[in-house]
Design brief:
Strand order of the largest sheet: 4-2-1-3-5
Order of helices and strands: EHEEHEHEHHHHHHHHHHHHH
Number of strands: 5
Shape: elongated
Number of helices: 16
Helix content: 40-55%
Distance between the termini: 38 Å
Strand content: 5-15%
Radius of gyration: 26 Å
Largest sheet: 5 strands, antiparallel
Structural class: alpha+beta
Length: 360
Amino acid sequence: MIKLYTFISEQELLEIEKGKFKKFLACFPLHFNIKKIPESAGKHLQFLVQFETEKEKISHLTASDEEQLVIENTEDLDKMNSLIEDKIKIIGIAGKNLNISQESVRILEKEKRFFEFRLKTYLHTNNREIIPYDYFEKQIDYENGTSESTEEEISIQYYDEKRSKINTVEAAVDFLINEDLNEDNINEIRNQSLALKFDELGGLFGLGMFLRNIFIYPNKNENFLQHLKTYDPQYLVNRGEFGEGIIEDLLWRKLNDKLITDESKNKIAELKKEQYEEDSFWNNYIKEQLLSYSLDDEVIRVYLELEDKKDAIDEDFEQSYYEQKRILAGISENERSVYDQIAQDYFTIRNLIEKLRHKP
């Protein structure tokens, strides 16, 4: 794969956005620098854009010095547009006059949201999902959700009978896995990474109401309800309004092989014996949660260092935040280059918007 660069005007940006960042306009001749970023000599606002393609497939279009790709007719343009990998990306701005229209600001903000969502999705899914370039334009099928456990109506008597025999959190989780949740439900939970699970703002998988409707509101089994109130997992957990968070937590842990170990329980017990000082309370609180997932001491140390960086005035909060997510997601060496590119795409457009906001 090779990268190609060119400058476009604000009007061209508007037209390229209409084409979902998959095609350039027929403004011949078109010049694209290969590997090397071109220099801008214009006074007016210009956007530096980049795209990737396979070198072999455009070799017949390149100039003899192999430093530029020159497009001079519609046939070659259509061919090149069809070979654009992923999408055209905005990576810079140039010009003495950086006054920008609100429509262009809207496009930049939209691209920022897209690349941020792509980054989070990659980190939040164990299968490392990469959303396609037109993800936000696709229609979403809301009817094929995962909130229903079966397509058939299950009688109240069925649940009453099952609930009467479920007296522990462990039994409730086994019932969900073995009898109630369908394969799609289970696969969706298994695909939720620790990076999402650890992010309380992520809302986990939205199972709270579903679990309350099964195990809390209509449940006449006082043994289970009392057990749920007094259940101690021996680590910090968001219990939810009525204890449904405990069931949700154990369900995720069991499906993702993240059950707490005896060694981690002992480490947490020792940590709780320490006198929590005001300046160390938050880090100890986080450390206790990290220990519950049996993470290595080195991983926990690096994570907490990044936590401190997030509060530093001269540090980039989001850089540290996403590094923490990368650690929790367990990005492997083989996956690192893909992650780095996805992160770079987001931070490039974010920094570009910040530059425009703080222009003199």
